[in-house]
């Protein structure tokens, strides 16, 4: 499974060759996010099959290579390590119900990864991602700039898609964020959302009634429950989350300094401390660089604190 033509350190090491991990590896090569990708999993047969399948399409992608191994040594000196290993979410199961087994796996795998890639930027993707990220920071002692979670980057993309579809504009012109937990207590920041510079709450008054309060509530509910709908239909989410993760990876590798709602350790911002959750954050070569002081209404601040309380309760429950 080793590509002898690709010397040097990996740009990206993906840990876990399940639906999400394998799709991230594939997407990184198709997009040209990384030139050298490695994939690590303990299931060597599944791993070999995924690596072969991706390898057979490399003549159709930007120049790149993929290597796989059940030995964590394959991740040595990686610039970015994307951790997707964890229990699979079952239909109807909340992300928080996954916490105990996934944190146990994180406790096992992180020391080994740090031995081979101590200077990597770590992107945690495994759900419940906010709990896993909080646990990984406490277990490793890494700075929060170096280790953070994929957070609500995907959820924010879902929100923008729903808004764009509702009012008939390009999704790239919708600026809106989902914040808080990547899960049931997440919520949209309507107070700062806009379309082409027009505040969301002014859209109905200025451009028709397509986005009244009921429509906004319906869209928020659609976004919060999107993953459950997809998992019920096909067993996993993988395409959009892979694209979201690759945008984060690109921002790190290319120092793009994109503003992305990744899950980082809050240290008093918005009255929240000691847990990881998502707020708009500048992401670049140094990792999660700066959390933006996004204006929030009193109701949104309360929602953020309730979201933090939910995450904290689960972290305490799993005993990290």
From TrEMBL:
Single Gene Ontology BP annotation: glycolytic process
Q: Which UniProt keywords apply?
A: Allosteric enzyme, Cytoplasm, Membrane, NAD, Oxidoreductase, Phosphoprotein, Transmembrane, Transmembrane helix
Q: List residues of the Lactate/malate dehydrogenase N-terminal domain.
A: 12-149
Reaction equations catalysed: (S)-lactate + NAD(+) = pyruvate + NADH + H(+)
Which Pfam families does the record associate with it? Ldh_1_C, Ldh_1_N
Whether NAD counts among this entry's keywords is yes
> Which residues of this UniProt protein bind beta-D-fructose 1,6-bisphosphate?
160, 175
Which residues are modified to Phosphotyrosine?
228
Kindly list the residue ranges recorded as spanning the membrane: 12-30
Known activity regulation?
Allosterically activated by fructose 1,6-bisphosphate (FBP).
Residues annotated as binding substrate are: 89, 95, 127-130, 155-158, 237
Show where the Lactate/malate dehydrogenase C-terminal domain sits.
152-317
Active site feature = 182 (proton acceptor)
Task: Write out the GO MF terms.
Answer: L-lactate dehydrogenase (NAD+) activity
Q: Where does NAD(+) bind?
A: 16-21, 41, 46, 86-87, 108, 125-127, 150
Q: Which HAMAP family match?
A: Lactate_dehydrog
The record ties this protein, via NCBIfam families, to: L-LDH-NAD
User: What does the record give as the function of this protein?
Assistant: Catalyzes the conversion of lactate to pyruvate.
Q: Which protein is depicted?
A: L-lactate dehydrogenase
Write down the species.
Ornithinimicrobium cerasi
* Source organism phylogeny: Bacteria, Bacillati, Actinomycetota, Actinomycetes, Micrococcales
């Amino acid at each position: 499974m080793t590509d002898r033509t690709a010397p040097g350190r990996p740009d990206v090491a993906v840990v876990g060759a399940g639906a999400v991990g394998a799709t991230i590896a594939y997407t990184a090569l198709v997009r040209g996010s990384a030139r050298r990708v490695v994939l690590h999993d303990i299931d060597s047969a599944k791993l070999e099959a995924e690596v072969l399948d991706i390898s057979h399409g490399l003549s159709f992608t930007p120049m790149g290579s993929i290597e796989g191994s059940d030995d964590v040594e394959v991740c040595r000196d990686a610039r970015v390590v994307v951790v997707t290993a964890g229990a699979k979410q079952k239909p109807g199961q909340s992300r928080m119900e996954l916490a105990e087994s996934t944190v146990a796996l994180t406790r096992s795998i992180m020391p080994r990864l740090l031995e081979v890639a101590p200077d990597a930027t770590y992107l945690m993707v495994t759900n419940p991602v906010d709990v896993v990220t909080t646990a990984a920071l406490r277990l490793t002692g890494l700075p929060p700039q170096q280790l953070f979670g994929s957070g609500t980057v995907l959820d924010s993309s879902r929100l923008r898609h729903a808004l764009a579809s509702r009012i008939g504009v390009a999704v790239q012109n919708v600026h809106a964020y989902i914040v808080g937990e990547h899960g049931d207590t997440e919520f949209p920041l309507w107070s700062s959302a806009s379309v082409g510079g027009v505040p969301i709450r002014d859209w109905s008054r200025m451009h028709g009634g397509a986005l009244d309060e009921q429509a906004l509530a319906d869209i928020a509910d659609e976004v919060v429950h999107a993953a459950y709908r997809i998992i019920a239909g096909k067993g996993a989410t993988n395409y959009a989350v892979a694209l979201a993760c690759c945008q984060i990876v690109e921002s790190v590798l290319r120092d793009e300094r994109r503003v992305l709602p990744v899950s980082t350790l809050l240290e008093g911002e918005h009255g929240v401390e000691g847990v990881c959750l998502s707020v708009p954050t500048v992401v670049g070569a140094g990792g999660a660089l700066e959390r933006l002081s996004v204006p929030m209404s009193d109701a949104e601040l309360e929602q953020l604190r309730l979201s933090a309380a939910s995450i904290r309760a689960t972290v305490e429950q799993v005993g990290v």
